[in-house]
């Protein structure tokens, strides 16, 4: 029977990570996996997280089962973080804790057929590598819309996205990245958000905003501005959130799924439905990360100061890399790195040139030419700029 199993390929990201581990060159640089690194190239546990963990360990609270929805203080904290502490939308939303942002994506993908059978989920192209597999594993149909820059000013080519979305039908889902688009780094302006919001209203599409990098772009409030605009304007909206990056809780699998409704009436029914989906899958989410996150939300200043330092580092590397490329006389298209937001950018080079970066210079990005900007230690920036210039 096992011989019937079709051959499966290993995850390409992990294959590259393994190749990197086996590379003997000292000057090798890993820009593959999306984790934040500090100026020395380390991914430390945030001090605010360490302090919360010490308090948790000292209190030695019971490890008996928690609520099906997860940690209620966490749920309250993350809802306010996403929507703003005084948002009137807080009264018409239901949030449950999930197994990371990934778990939230799958939970909501499983929820969608309950409210919109036969829906197509429209995802950006290029987009987050896991959007397609998750949505199709949940049985949704997939549509793609272009997510690219306008050459003249490096801003989002809204017309291209809109042209593709003209095909979307009432009841379909429009999946947008809340900020720091993965993999392109191209973020919509508030005017663009307004255009997507208007489109959803006109075509009766359900917005789904996936926000995995709040605090890594322009700041925690600025990064949530598009999501909040949509939340104010829509009676039905889905939100996926992750604490993996902005709290550095990657392996603790801490995230949330939110559903915004027209009013408070259907909220209990929504919660029961989400809990049933979760119960048939993993029962309830892990507690440790959400207990830590709940403490960070209660006393946010130390955590937010650390997050702001991460955000500035990413912005500084973008600027330094763009400056170096300018100095070398590299093509103008490389200046996109300066304007894009967050941890990722797609390099304006071909996959063959990406191979050369790896083979000749020991610089590893994904085969789709994505690099993790935050993976660069500050002293490595000139070397990466020179290598990019050399292969392009
Ligand atoms: N959505 C996007 C856009 C992502 O880039 C990621 C990866 N960080 C996720 C969701 C999944 O997040 P998590 O690691 O919390 O599962």
Automatic annotation (TrEMBL):
<dbReference type="GO" id="GO:0033585">
    <property type="term" value="P:L-phenylalanine biosynthetic process from chorismate via phenylpyruvate"/>
</dbReference>
<dbReference type="GO" id="GO:0042802">
    <property type="term" value="F:identical protein binding"/>
</dbReference>
<dbReference type="InterPro" id="IPR000796">
    <property type="entry name" value="Asp_trans"/>
</dbReference>
<keyword id="KW-0808">Transferase</keyword>
<keyword id="KW-0032">Aminotransferase</keyword>
<comment type="similarity">
    <text>Belongs to the class-I pyridoxal-phosphate-dependent aminotransferase family.</text>
</comment>
<dbReference type="InterPro" id="IPR015424">
    <property type="entry name" value="PyrdxlP-dep_Trfase"/>
</dbReference>
<protein>
    <submittedName>
        <fullName>Aspartate/tyrosine/aromatic aminotransferase</fullName>
    </submittedName>
</protein>
<dbReference type="InterPro" id="IPR015422">
    <property type="entry name" value="PyrdxlP-dep_Trfase_small"/>
</dbReference>
<dbReference type="GO" id="GO:0004838">
    <property type="term" value="F:L-tyrosine-2-oxoglutarate transaminase activity"/>
</dbReference>
<dbReference type="GO" id="GO:0004069">
    <property type="term" value="F:L-aspartate:2-oxoglutarate aminotransferase activity"/>
</dbReference>
<dbReference type="InterPro" id="IPR015421">
    <property type="entry name" value="PyrdxlP-dep_Trfase_major"/>
</dbReference>
<dbReference type="GO" id="GO:0030170">
    <property type="term" value="F:pyridoxal phosphate binding"/>
</dbReference>
<feature type="domain" description="Aminotransferase class I/classII large">
    <location>
        <begin position="27"/>
        <end position="388"/>
    </location>
</feature>
<dbReference type="InterPro" id="IPR004839">
    <property type="entry name" value="Aminotransferase_I/II_large"/>
</dbReference>
<dbReference type="Pfam" id="PF00155">
    <property type="entry name" value="Aminotran_1_2"/>
</dbReference>
<keyword id="KW-0663">Pyridoxal phosphate</keyword>
<dbReference type="GO" id="GO:0005829">
    <property type="term" value="C:cytosol"/>
</dbReference>
<comment type="subunit">
    <text>Homodimer.</text>
</comment>
